[in-house]
Design goal:
Blueprint (H helix, E strand, L loop, with lengths): L1 H30 L10 H6 L1 E10 L5 E10 L2 H9 L1 H13 L8 H19 L5 E11 L1
Antiparallel strand pairs: 1-2, 2-3
């Protein structure tokens, strides 16, 4: 009688541990799953993007830069908000460029760092979505 009771308790404990393990496995696999990223069509990207007018400013080394940006947001609503924030984009770009030299902006890496800085600072301001990508569409240093 005692052996049957002990065996029953052990089976219950093993079953409970197995159940906890299965639940933990399911939760971990569901939580670690990357969200599905919807690929946008070029039409959707265009509607969610804002062209920033030409920006002219001095660089830290005395040279000056003339550039244009196009900023891609995650939605049309975010693009509408960004359109209202163009003056802030200009301000951020001028501030960033004023601390950079011609050498800082040379090559691909310098431009990528500039784009990332604009993206990060704009995302701090955005309320209706976020900036997905900043594109330099025209760039001259003189």
């Amino acid at each position: 009688m005692k052996k049957n009771k002990l065996l029953t308790i052990m089976l219950i404990i093993i079953a409970a541990l197995a159940l906890v393990g299965v639940i933990a496995f399911v939760l971990l696999t569901q939580l670690n799953k990357e969200p599905e990223v919807k690929e946008l069509s070029i039409e959707e990207i265009a509607l969610a993007s804002v062209a920033i007018p030409e920006i002219k400013t001095n660089l830290a080394d005395g040279n000056y830069a003339v550039l244009q940006l196009t900023i891609q947001t995650e939605s049309e609503d975010a693009a509408k908000e960004l359109t209202q924030r163009i003056f802030q984009v200009n301000n951020i770009a001028i501030q960033e460029l004023s601390e950079m030299t011609e050498e800082d902006l040379q090559g691909k890496q310098g431009k990528i760092l500039f784009e990332k800085a604009i993206k990060a600072k704009m995302n701090e301001l955005m309320q209706e979505g976020e900036v997905q990508q900043v594109y330099i569409t025209s760039f001259i240093i003189s």
